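Hi C.,

You asked whether I'd gotten around to modeling the 641-residue construct. I have! Everything is below, sequence then structure, no commentary in between.
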Amino acid sequence: MKRILIYTGAGLLLLLLLLAGGLWIFRNRILNRMAERKITQVEERYGLEVHYDELRFEGTGCLFLNGLSVVPEERDTLLTLRSATFNLGFWQLLKGNVEVMDVALDGLTVDFVKENQQANYDFLFRSRSNGEKETERAPEKAGYDKRVQTLLNGVFRLLPSEGRLTRLYVRERKDSDSVSLYVPEFNIENHRFRSQLTFVEEGHTQHWETEGEINSGERRVSVCIQAPELTVPYIRRRLGAEVAFDRLWLSFTQQEEDEKMVLLGQTEVDGLKVFHRRLSPERINLNHGKLDFQLNVEPHALELDSCSTIRFNDLQFHPYLRVEPPSHLMASIHQPLFPAKELFNSLPHGLFENLEGIRVEGELAYDFELDADLARPDSLKFYSDLRPQHFRILGYGTTDLGKMSEEFEYTAYENEMPVRTFPVGPSWNHFLPLDSVPQLMRMAVLQSEDGGFFYHQGFLPDAIREAMVYDLKERRFARGGSTISMQLVKNVFLNRRKNIARKLEEALIVWLIEQNRLTSKERMFEVYLNIAEWGPGVYGLLEASEFYFGKRPSQLTLEECIYLASIIPKPKHYRSSFEANGRLKENQEGHFRLVARRMAAKGVISEAAAEEIDLSRVVLTGEAGKCFTDSLSLSTPQLVP
């Protein structure tokens, strides 16, 4: 029995040796047969022609490939490779466990070409071919943790710990536009890499220095890119923007914690410069920024943990951000007291031009919360509060923020171009002191535009929230939630430039003026009534009263006051409020009655007067009436011809 077992074992061992020997002898034939079968599947599925001159094993662990090309049907060549050597092993390949340990590539060229809406890379986005079954139910999408895990696994497995790439070209051409990347040599040694890259875009050449580490054993990635004022390709051509920096560094390590994936790392940028006309008309210089982050990757959400730290110039804070696709966003910042100069010294050059050079002392604290779900806009939660302690302005920067307290020159803009300049004070013959403005007119404007103006400190959080809800429903910036203070700052200091930077600067200037009482509320309201645009080329209440009704403000009726207040948001479109015969449209009645009831609640008019509001009493007897005809017989006074 023992002898039988020995003979049987020896026979099996011999059989295995013969099988292994056969596999070894015919390994290249087996390899090419496997490659041809896989290539045929790829060609049929994506409409490609894949060719190689030679594919073989050299020794026991090296795979050699020569003369590879990939050409989409009736398209330009997508990829060519002169030669490649991979150290991955024959037996590992047979087991399907492809892990590249060492690689040498030479002459890899990738060309992305698009002409007349046809591209040689369309197949990458193509759905399954008609021959494949579509009736099967698509599997549920993997969670974000699984997707990130798959991506990192691919990076760590396929990128070798040792390797050398030479003469690598990546080119993209769309009609007459083109950009190219050339890597003369890319070396990887003990997981660390270093290389020089040359980018050419629209005739502009850049030379980048890169280095870093991709360590699969420690699940760590580190990349550093630097060059004098490195400009990111594609951005200008695709988005009309410019992003440049001197040095960018990113490093992170993958960990598992409480059954979720965690990416712990840092990213740092020096000399960052950004330009886009929607951000600012000037180039924004962000100098130095650093982020120490903990990114939690969950099955259905991505979360930036509040233990993360952003350092921006002199400023440091801990943000929290959670994104639950497809539509839920949560964000918060809770910053306890910190030196106020850290904030103002860190403001980016080009983003807050009116505040450059400002000097302050004291401390600030800031709290911000946002919870927005696009699927349920009405559930939006928003809170923002900047609180001072012993805060004081020591010196203004480029702009005197207290200039409204005295007479100053105001310039009105149209499409960001100056159209008219006049003094806001007694030296202007159209200036109207606040005590000369009738109470009806004052209250009509306040109750129409900003009923809490004399009580708030520049902002109405509820109004801002309502505006955000409305914008979410409309899927555009349709409403701003501006107070009189915000409108005043926008017109006096910001030249009506419509960009994101203007809104941020507007909010900070409003806060400074209101918190430090740089201008009294009474003077602010007086300035507002004297510079508000009330029609094409019509500025201030005195001109408006004459233009529409041929009267002094003291002669205006209740209805006329409410009408003038109602057109402040859209002064150039005043004619849209009227029928062709000069009568106010009936859809104006709701607003008139709302303002009148608010005025009655304030005791300015009686409730009976509010109920007796009559649109027919608004008759344009001034210059504005000339745009209407009096073709119909009216019981009201005739329009000025």
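If it helps when you're writing up: Residues 128-139, 630-641 have pLDDT under 50 and may be disordered.

Thanks,
B.
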